[in-house]
Amino acid sequence: MSTLKNMFPSLTLFSDLDWDLVTAEYETNYIDLSFPEYLQQKATDGDCPPFLFELAYYEMALFDAQTSDTPFPHISGVYLNPSALFLSLEFDVMKMLAEAKTGKIEIIERPHVICLFRDKLGKVRSVELDDEALDILQNLEDGPQSDRKFLKPEQRSRYEEMVKNALIFELV
Fold it and tell me: Where are the alpha helices (DSSP H) in the chain?
């Protein structure tokens, strides 16, 4: 069985990939790219549907979040969770995978941004981010803030939610 097939099991649910052929082509001509990048190139060339590379990016990000050993901050400040991985998606891969578990294979187009991250207990979590959340997180992308003065008053509730969910660490 192909190593790639094991690493990206959802692709088998949503396509009839010939894994031997795909593996041979990838390892021969595209090994300098990640497998999701290879699928993205194939989609750009019209050789595979675009939702396949998004499924692959999601599975790769999920694996990275699960295996991340990035330490959490311990010095005073307001931090973005260092295990956070952001995906801007055109397809609702999480819903597609949930539906596939019940036997319903459906392609769901819905542009959105999700973040995968480990919480303080090591559990991988995901959250969909709207513009307000992204605006708050943008203040933390270049490094920690010393306190929450960067917040607008109307953002406090959303900020508290992100702290509670461990997407933001507030160490003061």
Answer: 3-7, 10-14, 19-29, 35-44, 50-67, 93-101, 131-138, 156-164
